[in-house]
Amino acid sequence: MEPSHGFPPISRLDARLLILGSLPGRRSIAKQQYYAHPQNAFWPIMRDVFGIDGDYENRCDGLLANQVAVWDVLRASVRPGSMDADIRAASSEANDFQEFLYKHQNVTRVLCNGSKAANMFERLVLPSLDAAPEVVCLPSTSPAFAAMRYDTKLRIWRDALTLCCGS
Question: How many Cα neighbours within 13 Å face the side chain of 150?
Answer without folding.
Answer: 12
